[in-house]
Amino acid sequence: MNHAISFMPVPRRIARRQRSRKNVWIAINAVGLLLGGTAIAATRSQLQRSESSAMQATDAAQARLDSIVEEQITLAAELTRIESRLVAHAEATQHPDWSILLAYISRIGADEIALEGFVLERGDSADVYSVALAGAARSQNAVTRFLLALERSGVFASTTLVRSNRTDAGTYTFAIACRIGEEPAPPPEEENG
Question: How many domains does the chain have?
Answer without folding.
Answer: 2
